[in-house]
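To illustrate the input format used throughout this study, we show a single complete record. The first block contains the structure-token representation of the backbone; no residue identities are included at this stage. The design step must infer an amino acid for every position from geometry alone.
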């Protein structure tokens, strides 16, 4: 880690992005995180993309006229294609004590001032355990941004957690259930409950919402088949997410159970909830015709072998030794 810079880190979660898209995300992160110690790229379920990125970074490093400085870079490959597992691997294996960790999706281009804006605001807020930026692009961005500023939220495209909170997540052995779609909303809920819903009431102030820290994304092109297919798949995952949210609300808010006692997989979480509260599931199913299909998809989900969950470091650049 480059100790001459801020003890902050940026984590990029990647999976289905193209190499050019991920390269743009990394380049924008390097600019926004110029004063940070390290940028981690966690590529999950796509060994080919991790290898291609490593090769691209090597070629760019060799062709550079001089060292560009900035943060160290580490590229990790995780066999399992699952963002929840990538979260867990970073928190419990990769995090190295940095004071703030920022989390970015692999298709996001951070604004140049995003990391500094959010980082300094969160560091200065003694009550905050974490922080989030707000969206500025997309049809629903304005409404979502205004709602987050008033009612809080935790946006997975760009958010952060204080190192002291990550240490508590480790100590309490809190993990996100594997296969969960609503990873970001679960983490937001855990943070608002100060990691202990049995001992603390939900408080919005535990997440600092910065009104101008933001990012850019590519607009979907509806004449492209892959964008249409992605939208259809996303809609079905959102239906699954409704079931996940109901199960999580039952665990955290109604029964006030510890996040550490969450089932290890989303499959167990949702199926146990549906069995325990069949009437609650029926109410959701009456409002959404895809709910029964979504529940069936949990039933058909196979077990995830543990050996595919661990990260492997495939490329690194130490700015300290090459400057």
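Output of the design step:
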């Amino acid at each position: 880690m480059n100790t001459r810079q801020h003890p902050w880190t940026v984590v990029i979660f990647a999976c289905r992005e193209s190499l050019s898209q991920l390269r743009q995300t990394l380049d924008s992160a390097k600019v926004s995180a110029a004063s940070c110690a390290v940028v981690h790229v966690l590529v999950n379920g796509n060994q080919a993309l991790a290898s291609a990125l490593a090769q691209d970074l090597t070629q760019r490093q060799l062709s550079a006229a001089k060292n560009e400085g900035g943060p160290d870079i580490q590229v990790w490959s995780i066999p399992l294609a699952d963002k929840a597992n990538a979260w867990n691997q970073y928190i419990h294996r990769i995090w190295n004590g940095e004071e703030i960790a920022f989390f970015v999706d692999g298709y996001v281009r951070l604004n140049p001032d995003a990391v500094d804006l959010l980082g300094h605001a969160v560091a200065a807020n003694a009550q905050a355990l974490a922080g989030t930026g707000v969206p500025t692009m997309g049809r629903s961005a304005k409404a979502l941004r205004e709602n987050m500023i008033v009612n809080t939220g935790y946006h997975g495209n760009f958010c952060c957690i204080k190192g002291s909170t990550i240490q508590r997540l480790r100590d309490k052995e809190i993990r996100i259930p594997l296969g969960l779609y609503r990873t970001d909303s679960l983490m937001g809920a855990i943070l608002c409950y100060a990691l202990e819903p049995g001992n603390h009431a939900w408080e919005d102030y535990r997440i600092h919402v910065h009104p101008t820290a933001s990012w850019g994304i590519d607009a979907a092109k509806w004449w492209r088949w892959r964008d249409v297919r992605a939208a259809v798949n996303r809609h079905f995952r959102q239906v699954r997410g409704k079931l996940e949210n109901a199960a999580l609300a039952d665990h955290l808010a109604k029964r006030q159970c510890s996040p550490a006692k969450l089932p290890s997989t989303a499959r167990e979480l949702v199926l146990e909830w549906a069995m325990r509260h069949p009437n609650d599931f029926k109410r959701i199913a009456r409002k959404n015709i895809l709910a029964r299909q979504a529940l069936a998809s949990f039933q058909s989900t196979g077990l995830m072998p543990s050996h595919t969950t661990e990260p492997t470091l495939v490329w690194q650049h130490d700015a300290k030794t090459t400057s």
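Structural context for interpreting the output: The radius of gyration is 20 Å. The domain at 8-219+306-322 is CATH 3.90.550.10 (Spore Coat Polysaccharide Biosynthesis Protein SpsA; Chain A).
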